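Progress against Task 2.4 (sequence-to-structure conversion) is shown through the following example record, which the project officer requested during the mid-term review.
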Amino acid sequence: MAKLSIADLTIDDARAELAELAAKLNAANVAYHGKDAPSISDAEFDALKRRNAEIEQRFPDLIRADSPSKQIGAPVQDGFTKVTHAQRMMSLGNAFNDEDVSDFDQSIRKYLGLADSAPLAFTAEPKIDGLSLSLRYESGQLVQAATRGDGAVGEGVLANAKTITDIPQEIANAPDILEVRGEVYMSHEDFAFLNARQTERGGKTFANPRNAAAGSLRQLDSEITKSRPLKFFAYAWGEISEPLAQTQFLAIARLKEFGFQTNPFTKRIQTTAELIAHYRAIEQDRADLGYDIDGVVYKVDDLSYQSRLGFRATTPRWAIAHKFPAELAWTHLEAIDIQVGRTGALSPVARLTPITVGGVVVSNATLHNEDYIEGRDSNGAPIREGRDIRVGDWVQIYRAGDVIPKIRDVDLSKRPKESVPFEFPSLCPECDSPAVREEGDAIRRCTGGLTCPAQAVEKLKHFVSRGAFDIDGLGAKQIEMFYHDKGLSIREPADIFTLKQRDAAQLTKLKNREGWGAKSAEKLFDAIDARRNIGFGRVLYALGLRHVGAQSAALIARHYGSWTAFVDAMDEAKDPTNAAWNTLLSIDGVGEVMANSLIAAFQNEAERASITRLSDELTIEDAEQPDTDSPVAGKIVVFTGTLEKMTRAEAKARAESLGAKVSGSVSAKTDILVAGLGAGSKAKKALELGVQTMDEDTWLSLIEAL
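Structure tokens generated for the chain above:
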């Protein structure tokens, strides 16, 4: 949907967007609360809900009956008994910054008629990221347990609740009716144990502790719940026959006396400044808690004030959740490991105390390169105000969308006194070859080449990847296995094509090895043989040469036509005064860096021998030459949206065979945009730039007429 500013929305715009927001948010609620399988991130959900509220505030007459602002949780799913809550289980309003907290304080004072100088105490407690549960006790006996559901009706899970050791089944000296509310959760340690056990058994693993806890409690078989390590924090109450205390803080203490676990970080606070300070302290200590929290909840402490303040449609006026930024978290940097890639690049990786960020448990983060660790960018300018990164540091992690987690900042106040700067290795950690950094390169690289096991394995994984040889049954896992196999070792690409022959000479055949059988071994050999005839461009890309991607490999293949002509040209081009060098540079997309990489590979004795052994096992087909007479020859074409009559790969291949250049993004240089179903931002940009746009049928009519 178009993100017009709220002020620019017309009534029709607002009505359409509210309908779309209602559909998306209500579906997200069902996925999160009803199916324990979030469909969008917390950050996206909060942003959409805020926009919905802002539109409703400007257009109150357009508020829908199914408005997300009126919804709590999700309806009861099939298979559970329905339990009607004696008092509705509400959700909480959210604060996202310090100003929101001050506004909350002011709204309370205004409603109660309190002066700014009048005392107003709050309790502050960590907001546990789990599943809400209501427990009803009558005469001290646990008689009912229900999830929040849609707030009015929840799911009956009494048998499951009784398996949780934190939940007392009998309470002495309790009120006749006591409904205790809290959160079922799973600790980080238990979550890791559960996922490891599930993996061993071939079962479902969970994305984060919240999903694991919710999925475990909402089992139709209580024996499954019993086998899961669930915990419970009590923090509130519903129907009650007599008051527990006069304040929120003392009432929580009373629940602890009854035998419930209550959060030790719950604190009684007098001012908003102290609330925010407590929030910051908990945010800093988040990774050390041992369980997930996603914010801090503030509640007016005086229960008589709570009674006067009452409720809005779905939230209490006397409480608010101060949420942590969904994509940020602080945690410990436990170690820095160096990984070696297929091009020899030494890539530093941060090993972290696991923390949930954006709904995903993060235990690793990229550190880019040695400059980044030292606190400067590739141009030498300071980043993080020049703060370096060291093992033992307390670091802030960020993760936006599907981006790989990264370190944003370091808290120097928590740096151990004995810490020392990280020393980036000058030798490859895999083969002890010198690791050098060429001038102008931000990356340090191993010089070991194929003698480096890490490079060899990664090159082999690339070789069998989908865009390269794509051998069915031979993926990254199998490459790892064969690389370390003494009898059927695969150490270079040519070894793949001698595997069947070498297997025949082995006493213990592949079919008799663990994880293999006669049928699977035969299928692998057949799949390998099927790739002996292969196109020139795919072979060149599969070699994994630095700077040579799939598109450039295809362009080079089309230029030289045959593998033999290409190899001869590389031998000639080693002399920069030779015409072959200029010819190589004349190919569209080939610059000096790529040209030098190609020539270096064919001049390296060991690598050249490996390439020759591979080509001897193959029939390398000449590259298909594009139709240079077609009206689309030389034009830049972009495909977007969903194509119905061909795959994106087919469309790209057909366009390139007609001499077109296929790009992934729209620019002023784009000649044609082919828009399939659901075309979005690219179609909009093409319209703005005046790029010729056509649908799939028009494109097919154009190219089929050629």
